[in-house]
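Much of what follows relies on a compact textual record of a protein's fold. A complete example follows; check for yourself that the lines match position by position.
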Amino acid sequence: MLRTKVIDLVNSGEAWAFLGSGVSADAGGPTWRELLDSAVERLEASELVKNDTIFQASLTSRDLARCFGRLEQLTNRKDLEEAVCSCLSQLSSYGDLHAKLAEWPFRGYVTTNYDLLLEEAMHGSSQHGWSPVGNTDSEIRKLSGSPSNVVWHVHGFLASAGERAQKSKLILTDRDYDELYLDGSRTVDQLRGLLSLSQIVFIGFGFNDPEFERVLKLVGRLTSPDRPLYAFFPFRSGEFSSQICEDYLFRYNIDLIPYEVSNGSHKRLGSLLATYGALCVRRSMSFGRSITHAPSFDPETTGLMVYNELCLRPQEPMSGDTREALLRARILSALLADQSRTFTDLVDELYPRLNLLENGKYSKEEAGLAIVDAIENLVADGLASIDENGDITKVRLTSKASSIVATQRAGAEFLEDQFVASVQSRAQARCQNDSADRVADAAIEFLRKCILDRALGVALAFGNRGVTRSFHMVALLQNLPIYMETLANIDQAIALSNIIQNILSSPTDAERNYIGVGLQAQFAIHMLGYDSSTLTARAEQLATGVFLVDSSTLIPLLARSCFGHRAAKGLIKHLQALGATLATTPLLAREVAEHARYAMSKVDKNTGSPTSATYKSIGGWAGARSNAFLEGFVQEIAEGNTTPNFHDYLRKACNLQLAGKNCSQDSVESALVKLGLICRRLADWDGFVPLMWGEVEDHSMRITERRQEFGTYTHPRQTKAEGEVLVLVEGLRSGKLRAEAKNPEHAFFISRSRVVDNIVDASSPITINPESLMQWASTLNSCDIDELALLTDRLLWELSENNLKIVDVRLLQRVFGPMIDASKEALEETKVKHAELVAEHFGERGETAFRMIGDYEYPIVGEAYYRQYSEALEAKLEIEREKNKHASSVSSLTSGEKKELEIFRAEKREHERQARHKRRSIENRKVRKGK
């Protein structure tokens, strides 16, 4: 539970901090139990205390002060203090908590710690003039009146034996505590005087800490109910409840600010102090600076969280009106920035983004139809026109659009003008006239940046009440000190803090309208994937990945002009431009070489010119895949881009160096390396160990068994290649293998065959198909600043005029939870989740993998073209039969066509017979296995 009032209290400069042992423990200091154990060891009293029933009983009841008292009785006071001082002298430097607390503008500090680390932290942050005050009568007198800039060591501090006698007595034993907190003692009187003038914030005390209980019993009754104390209060999961808060408030008049302890670590306290500290007017602040941009970590974390949960993870479906508004806004902003956009350009850009927003249910054709509808509506409204020129269809804005856009921009500016006037009115009511404009400007700039960079935090602060709102307000305002430093003095800084808190908790209508619509527009930017901070984080994810490329992509990549070459080349270039590492294996390169060699067997061996066998082999039979090299070769001949010599085509178009008239595996590997791919044996990867060969064999055996079960097994090299890929992906993901001296954050196998999925129990899919990968990469295209500004204006108009919502606040509350952590520390965790969701969204799941045959399993292809020509002749014959209704219609075919038709029919029957035989073999194998 967070308390923003404590910030106002600290900023007032009248509060004192009461620090417990937890603050020094953060710097490596011992706990009370560790200090006791160390003292026993240094006094060589282990056997004494082991057999002492009083010591052991006190230890069992956790009365450590009584344990120290008994240890004093068993040894002597001087040696006990020397043992304690010897242990504490090991502390060499102050910790993070000391540094944070030294920056808070407390008037002074009271501490139960014996070390002087807080004073060192003060000196380290250039806060000079702070001095320690001990707990002897002469020292306590130094605190009379209204002291400041002091650290009161109420339980004493480390000093020489002579200095301790004059300034500091170490409070160790139960008897020491009783004397120190005796009614009428100078310590109690001074605490009473301190509390009459100031309020106290407790930090570093533990749950059921006897030391904390003693202090509370004293100071709790010295406070006024309308001026409670505050305490940052640790608890373990499951042990804290609102009843505890009520009990402490009733018994001790202390308001608890809880944080969770995990595995004994108080790390959350540091995060909590950092969050509250961001709202404090720190001691080291310098005023009069110009406004600077917000740190990048918060926007990255927030934006990536939004993209993860609202784009990659399925949520509520988007309404048709909202989808239409997004498409209209983006199309218009694109056309305003560039009138040369074609319909294809718009579909290519918007399809992957629309597909994400619709949870992957849109095909490219369906997305195209949705985009067509949006364009047609713009045409119907007189804002756009269609310009067709051959195969190119351009979309252009009309003259009416410019006028409409200007009007809409004015509407968006009017919303902002009302917002600015409202904030200025608040500043004038809160500040002197000469300060109001400066404070208002800082508040407006801060809120604008919050909308742009922290939309999620603003939305959750607006949409919640009570404790949850306070949490999000404090988390949201962590960047406010940067804007405080643009002001002239501390009074203006405090005024800015109050104004911002009031706007977020009780906005006027003008403020609510502007911030609300601005948030929805920013969510649209996030979900369309154009937010620059999020885009950077997402691009880094892809750039740190390794993608192993299957031969099904390598073949069309090398076979220029074949169907799929442009897509394969575009994918590889796009991934390389984004910084991704691309690799393959020699076994997969061998599949490519075999594909090329098969093609060479279908052309004239001497001249390389196409023959009838070439044209029969450019397609497949009964579903087999075409040979890409022959397909590209024939296409280039048709376009006049190559000579009718297949060997020249391989050398020039495919960049393959032939040994005589043969295409070797080395030639393929060399060509791939020139294209920027790594082609490396498993044993040559950094981090390889021989045991990995055993893993390859194990995976290969399992893949072989599954492939044989479903009748897709062809040869051992096939399954070995898949087993090797699987070991590579696993090794890269686990960090056992490294790529080019870097540890990849993730790895995928780019393939249309999903056989390697489901062989191992991977946390995310191993395989990603090229189309999905291209869709992922396509969402990483940025939008320039001017175009993004146009898009924002369009969205503001569409959303405000039509009262639309991109995201409902209730959805945000449900998805992100009441206590979301979008801090810098959460960025790495958010990136990990992003990688997992990307794999889940774009990766292939292999439930039916073994029923499918991948492209690289077809180095020797069938004749699809042969089959198609046969079917065309059959259709021609049937037409003639229908016309003439008698057998003579066959004569309409030429004699050559009749012969070809008979050959086609015979070969078709043979293919069908072989297919039936294969199916029977599979069934028989299944029956035998079942027995």
